[in-house]
Each structure stands twice: as C-alpha cells, then as structure tokens.
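Journal club prep — side note

Before the paper discussion, L.F. wants everyone to see what a predicted structure for a comparable chain looks like in token form. Sequence:
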Amino acid sequence: SQEHEKPLAERMRPGTFDEVLGQPHLTAQESLFRKSVESDRLSSIVLYGPPGTGKTTLARLIASYTKKQFKELNAVFSTVQNLRDIIKEAQDIKRYHDKGTIIFVDEIHRWNKAQQEALLPWIENGTIILIGATTQNPFFELTSALLSRVQVFELYRLEADQLLAAIQRALTDEQRGYGELKITIAPDAAQFLVQHTVGDVRIVYNVLEWIIETHALRQTCITYPMVQEALQKKAILYDRDGDYHYDTASAFIKSIRGSDPDAALFWASVMLEGGEDPRFILRRLLIASAEDIGLAEPGAIQVVTSCAEAFERVGMPEGWYFIAEAVLYCATCPKSNSAGAIFTARELARTRDFSVPLELKDAAKDGKTLGHGAGYHYPHDYHGHWIPHSYMPAGLFSTFFYKPSRMGFERSRFKEIMLRHTSIILSEDLQLAMIDAQGVQEAYLELLETLQAQVPHFQAQTPHFESILVVTSQGLVFSRLACITQDTDMQCKLLIPEASLALCRSRYFADFEQALLPQWFTFPGTMIDNEPIDQGALETFANASTTRELIVYGAPKHKVRESTLEALFSLLIPHFSKILYIEPLTLQKGLMPQILNHELDRDAYTQLLKYDNEYFAMRESNYVFENASHFCCKHVETVEAYVERQLTDSLQEQLLSLHAEY
C-alpha cells in the first residue's frame, strides 16, 4: 500500500501523546505542555533536543489537535518568498475567517538573523504561532529578540528501555510495522543496536528496516551479526560547530579538573572520533595546565607543549599517543586554581581608586625633589632576602589575591606565604609596625608549637580524645596559625571570643581555600563584654564528639578568665566523662576549686581543694606528694625562645601599659 511505501520511521511516528516514547515532562497526562496542546491554547515555542527524540512528532501532534491552519517549513530549503507567501495567507485567513495559523519551522537554527527577526511582528500581533525545532542550543543559535517571544522546551535522548520498546513496537505492529512477518530479534542483537544508536529512535527504525528489507526476512530472527553489519560503525553524536561540541568539550575539561583520567580519555576520544581537530584538545589541555593545575605542578605547561610539538611532527594515527599522554598527565596531576587570582586583581584594578605608595615610586628621576622612593628597604640586604612589608596601595594592605593550595609543588610555598599574610593582618589589626607584628606572630607560633609538642603527653592521660578545645584571647590569630601549620589528623576545635564566624572567614581566612577553613564554635564578646556563652554551639560540638574524652587548652591569661572557664566547664561536664584541662601559664592558687565548686560533689571538691593546696605548697618547697584520686599533676618541659625586636613607641606602650593583652 501507499502507506507501506513510506520509511519505517515515518510509519511508526506516534499518533497520540500516549504513544510517544520518552519526554514524560511534555507528554504526561498532567503536564502543562500536553494540556495546552489538547486545549488548543499553545503559544509560540521552540523544541530543542538531539536528533530522533520526537521534535517533529510533537509538532505533528499539535497539528492534529489544533483548529488553526498548520503550515510546515524546513529552514534548509525554504526561501524568504516561501515565508512571505505563508504570512500573506495567514493574514487573509485571520482577516476573513478569524482563524490563526501555526507555522512549524524545522531546523530553525539554519535561518539567519534577518530571517528569524522577520517573524517578530507577526508573532507579536497574533497572526502566527511559531513552532521551531532545532538540534542546536537555541540560546546560542537564535536571536535574543526571537527568544524573548518564545518558550523553549528541551527534549532528551531516549533511554535504553524506551529504544527496546520501539524495537518491539516496530516488529509487532501489523498495521505500521512488520508484525505480519513474524520477525523477532535476539536479545544480544537488540542490546547492541540500542547501545550504538545514541538515543536516536530514527536510527533504530532505519537499521531494522535496512536489515529486514535487504535480507527479505520472513518468520525469522534478527541476529547479532546482522545488526553489527548494518551499523558498521557506531553513530557518534557530535557536531564540531554546534551544541554537542560545547557539551562534550565541557565534559572533557571537567574530567581533567576532577582528576578522572578514564573519563578524560573517553571524552577526548568522543571528540576525535566525531571529527574534532586534535589541536583543539591540545589547546584546551594547555589552558587547563595553568587554570586547573597551575603551581601545584608548574611543569604541566612544558609537558603539554612538548606533546603538542610531537603531535605536529608525527601526525596521525601515531599522534594519538601524544594526545593520550598529555590527557593522562593533566588528569593525574595535583590541582590548584590559584592562578585564577589574576581575575580578582583585574576586577579590583578596574574598580578601585589607588595611588602608588611613595616608597615604591621610581627614585631615578624625582627621588631628590619629590621624595620618591624614600623609606624603601632593599629586601636583599636582609636575612632571608625578605622583610615584613606590604607593597599594596594604601587601604589594600590586607587584600590577598593569591590563595596557595597544599597540593604538589605549591605545598612547599604554602606555609611561608600564609605566615607573611598573617604578619600583614596583625600589623593592620593591632596597629603595629610590620616588624613588631611579626614578633607577635612568632610568639603565638611558639605557643602553638608547644601545644602540638605536648600531644603525646595528652594522649597518655586521655588516650581516646579526638579534639582539643582551645580557649584563647587572640583566638583568630591562634586559629589561623593552627590551620597554616597543622599537618596531622588532629583537629583543634577553637572557641573564639572576639569575633563572629562571619568575621573570621571574611578577614582572617579570606586567603584560605574553602577546604582549609577551620571548624570552630564562637561565643562573641564573652571575654570582653561578659555576654553569655553560646550554649547551643557548645552542645552541637559535644554531641558531634564520638568519644567522651576531651582536652581543654587555655591560653594565654586574659580578662574574666575565671568566669569564662566556670561557664565553659558547667556546659561541658554533663557531656564528657573525662576532661583534661591544660593551662600553659602558671595557675593561680585556688582557681580550679573556685571554677569547679558547683560541678563536683562534696568529696571530690574536698580532694581537689587538698590537691590544690599541696600542689602550690610543693611548688614553693619542692615537697613531693602522691597524686590525689581523680587529679594528677604533670610537669612538662617548657620551651624558652627569644626574638630580637626593635623597641618602638607602640611596642613600649604594648609592654608597659596596665591594660595590655600581650
């Protein structure tokens, strides 16, 4: 019959929404798209998706439901005159019959800007309703004016089970398919066909038709060799100039960035098999060498460049080896995106007003008359060829663009760079000269190193502890230095009294990678304004602990220490069976009994009071005594360190003031 002379793919085209395979977001009974079509209230749309996913089918379904005139154009073959004729006809029908017109334009991305925008006035005044179909991303291929007047619906590749259903439908449908011929297909042949048709049901129908008509099959089974012969080579869905090019390239780049060598090789192969220029892949790898690998492995640029040069000398097919080597090398390199700091610096340079500091100006021409270069210190004249000084413009001293990672080569620079940043922050916050700020930093480093050195002693007393709770008056400094120097699995949970979490992250940790940010619990103002401790934060911390042993480290002595510790212990004691409190500075006699007075029963308090008296008596007379039950004394070696510092007015005020913290 005339119907059977049509290609199988055309004969099997669904006639109702329920027959459509896939696209449930458009064809389901309750979907808005289906409701608008069935009620004939559809507005202008663009159907976007890979080949063989049902774009033309949906357009034909719209034609079957609508009472409007339906006209169909193919953008490849139609001319401007064809469009004008349809528009003229639509105007006449609208004028004389008050009836609208739907124009379906297949492959609408093929039209140029003038052709696309020729539709605009007729869409706006309601003369026509446009249905466009495209395999290319409409946000790249269609004009913004046209996109603002249509709604875009995306169609997706068909899944394996949907393609298998299409095969069975074609072999069993006696009216449109090959049901009368009683043909079956072997399971392995069906799976092979599905796997090699990239979700395109049209390819499935074409392969079946080719096999059945070529072999004149009747009452037989389609075998694996038949399908293999018909396919010859897997169809690769790739367009060097279209949306699939960008999608595949994106998958390749993200596989490199995500250190997945297998995926990187796969997507590179998809591009090459699809006809991509190998030089495009090598260019992307060269970009990734700086963008995603960067200073974690500075040699990546040289490796990729060498592979690109080798490829040019050798060519294909042996050139596959050089591409593979470059892909695998980049995918397995340590990663750092710190080179991206240049874009933050560029943005600030464009938007901020600044001037070159006087000491950084060129002294060769105007040094004597204008004082250019005055106050500049030549770093090579100093130890380590460096002095603590910021070379940024005024107002940007503590602005850090470079965020070093702890990966690969960059790991060796991390500590040095971050400590230099710390000196700059302290200089600005404490209003100290840079050399004095460095001295403060070194003092806290010594305190931190002492704490870390005593971890084995802590483990002897509390072998099951998993974290150290640090209470310190300069918690931001301590926390920053702990994160910079911490290379072990032990995490310091820090109680920071003088700043909120938001301030900590925006100021003292603005130059940290997100993964390096510390975990802490804040009780803002407690040390300074006597505000209550954040009980919820402490309970969250306690509940998150998997062990019931805790080390509390108090450093250094500050205002309202007693009230703070008393409040802290009252909240911690109900959650932990053992708390080891370490005070690195000399304890005041009677302090601990005062703190724990309300937390211990009478017998335990009496033992602690006796222990406290004997401990301080021992310190005065070197008297040796036995440790009391529940309480013990541990002498640890103290480390004395001396830092040579320049005596300035600010340092003198810091050392001698009655209100000084240091």
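L.F.'s comment for the group: The chain has 31 helices and twelve strands. Keep this in mind when we get to the figures.
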